[in-house]
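Researcher: We plan to redesign the surface later, but first we want a full-length starting point. Tokens attached.
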């Protein structure tokens, strides 16, 4: 049985749809900015159409990226941190976990940052990626209480400046948040950060650790894999 073509009933070519979605999710651009960039290239698309495309295909593209990715997250050292996010004037918390190479493991949105929320985040991470050798966090008491509950308090490291890896990872989200004029619901925030994480992992190659030729090869491979995603 042949694979169903997700672009079957769309008049616009799959290449344009994928380009628009990639621009919007990967870079801190608004829908209207993406519309202007495409218009400069002779592609007449309304910003509301781009909104529909990323809502329709974002999760699908993210899933395909994960399937075809050759890179696997490391269990050597995890870095976990949470940031404040305002949704309709109410404070929520976006928890982000990355490994020591900067690969985003997962993002979770909660209304609280207490022991229950931290425990939920840690259990989901370990059920999906296994148990790490070290978990770097800040000194929020919720982490220690949750780690003690699952018998992993010996893995915690709260050293100063140790968590810069994940704090730098938050910068992509903050730029994106400004471009979108914040979020309207927990659901939309969770959906977008999950999709954005897959895109960032796919196109991020830690250029400061690679020589120029290696970085160019890795970047070319990522682009080639992206072109093959959902190929009709």
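Model: Full-length starting sequence:
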């Amino acid at each position: 049985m042949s694979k169903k073509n997700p672009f079957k009933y769309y008049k616009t070519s799959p290449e344009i749809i994928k380009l628009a979605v990639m621009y919007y999710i990967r870079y801190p651009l608004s829908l209207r900015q993406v519309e202007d960039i495409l218009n400069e290239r002779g592609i007449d698309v309304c910003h509301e159409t781009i909104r529909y495309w990323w809502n329709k295909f974002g999760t699908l593209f993210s899933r395909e990226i994960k399937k075809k990715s050759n890179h696997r997250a490391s269990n050597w050292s995890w870095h976990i941190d949470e940031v404040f996010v305002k949704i309709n004037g109410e404070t929520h918390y976006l928890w982000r976990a990355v490994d020591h190479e900067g690969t985003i493991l997962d993002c979770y949105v909660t209304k609280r940052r207490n022991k229950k929320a931290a425990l939920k985040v840690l259990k989901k991470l370990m059920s999906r990626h296994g148990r790490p050798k070290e978990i770097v966090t800040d000194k929020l008491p919720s982490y220690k209480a949750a780690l003690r509950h699952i018998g992993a308090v010996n893995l915690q490291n709260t050293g100063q400046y140790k968590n810069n890896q994940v704090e730098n990872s938050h910068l992509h989200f903050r730029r994106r948040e400004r471009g979108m004029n914040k979020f309207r619901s927990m659901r939309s925030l969770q959906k977008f950060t999950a999709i954005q994480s897959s895109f960032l992992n796919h196109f991020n190659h830690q250029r400061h650790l690679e020589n120029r030729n290696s970085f160019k090869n890795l970047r070319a491979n990522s682009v080639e894999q992206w072109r093959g995603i959902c190929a009709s």
